[in-house]
Amino acid sequence: GNRAANPDLKPERRKEFEFGLEASFFKNFLNVDLSYYDSKVVNQIIALPLAASTGYTSQTANVGTISNKGFEGLVTFNWIKSKSNGFGSSTTVNYSTNNSILKELDPRLGQLNLGGTSAIALIAKVGSPLALIEGSVAERDPQGNIVVDANGIPVFATEKEVYGDTQYDYTMGVGNTLSYKNLTLDFSFDIRQGGLMYSRTADITRFTGNSITTTYNDRQPFVVPGSVVKVTAADGTVTYTPNTTPVDIEHQDDYYSATALDRANVIDKSFIKLREVIVGYEFPKKLLGNAPIQSLSLSVIGRNLFLWTPKSNQYIDPETSTFGTDLRGQYGEFSANPSTRSVGFSVKANF
Known about the structure:
Elements: E1 3-4, E2 13-25, E3 30-49, E4 58-81, E5 87-105, E6 112-116, E7 121-124, E8 132-135, E9 147-148, E10 161-165, E11 170-180, E12 183-193, E13 196-199, H1 200-208, E14 228-232, E15 238-242, H2 252-256, E16 266-268, E17 271-282, H3 285-288, E18 295-308, E19 332-333, E20 342-350
């Protein structure tokens, strides 16, 4: 195969402690389940890329230590539990955080390349969250103004920069149940805040002019705000002069696909989603008569019905990914298919 053997490979170990609280109050009106955990994964195993000149392309190796700290909470409110009129209401809220840090890394590795694309990479650095998104940025003068070329297009800097990390600040779910006699209504929201992801859909729609961002200035020529032109004299002296060259219509596709603006293709992956709505009805036993059915219920189920995203994400459902389900899957999507909204029904019978 193309994977080099590693006789020094050690088992990956996980060391963790966790403590929590589980309690109920006011005759089960309020129920709480809280926990905090602190764990370390030592001898982390990852497939490292090798130069093809070695005869192999990768080697499985122990590369470092990862720390995970987080909090998980589940709170349930039983608002109404009435037997007299058959009405009931409850709300469940779950909340969690996870802070994953690369604590140690093999000294031979300045940073760890976890994947991504040739332009925008998914990396890990010691002391930083897992994982980071790194890409090109515009060159700037000492005052922070964007440097442009002869056509008014921003010039990319020689050094790439970290845009941010892919971790959510927190995830949260809110579920509600309403019932009246034989009729029930369940609906739940899924909330995720923070983190970045790469979007090829954002990239390609900007390139083709199908993104709303390409309607800037009504698609008429414009000068990049606060931009400057870099002038190098014969003696090597560098000066900067205000830019007066507009990005004309002919070069607007170059502007929106400029390497210096790759940051625009990395979007906020926060969202609020109406995850599920279920309307159910259980037929009274008297309607079943002498039929050999003990119970019969009918439900209409809707999933992923509505999605709210930040202004920076007008392109894709943040849950979509084309890079797998492991850590690399946090990188984002490469022209992924849209997510699915579904409506269906179920019939349940007990004989």
